[in-house]
Design brief:
131 residues, alpha/beta, 2,3-Dihydroxybiphenyl 1,2-Dioxygenase, domain 1, 3 helices
């Protein structure tokens, strides 16, 4: 088994696509007007319009997540914090050293989903997460 994607259902597809393109620097592909994908080496972030929830028995609800965190490893989390200041409107955590060895920032996307960017900084974290 291999994790292939994480999908967010949204009522604001175009603004969510633009937000994640700005955050990640990756251009989204749009195989359908109601669906977008941002592809990374490790996984794909999929974004589906709220109308696509019907294809999943309406089990997903837009802008209702309060538990999952979408995470990316970055080379310099402090530089990313400075770069993203004008883009992000809701910060939950400025650069902070975590007990497991990562330096991390936490913010919300336009639908309120949590996004974490982090850089491993301790020798143990660097070894564990080396790319």
């Amino acid at each position: 088994m291999d994790l292939v994607s994480v999908r967010i259902i949204t009522a604001n597809l175009d603004s969510m696509v633009a937000f994640y393109e700005q955050v990640t620097g990756v251009a989204a592909s749009r195989p359908a007007p109601v669906f977008a994908e941002l592809r990374f080496a490790s996984c794909t972030l999929a974004l589906g319009d709220v109308s696509t929830a019907a294809l999943f028995n309406n089990a997903a609800e837009a802008a209702a997540n309060r538990s999952a965190i979408i995470e990316w490893i970055v080379d310099d989390v402090d530089a990313e914090f400075e770069r993203l200041r004008p883009i992000v409107s809701q910060w939950e955590q400025e650069p902070t050293q975590m007990p497991w060895g990562n330096r991390s920032i936490l913010f919300r996307d336009p639908d309120g989903n949590l996004v974490n960017l982090f850089t491993p900084v301790t020798p143990e974290a660097i070894q564990r997460l080396s790319r």
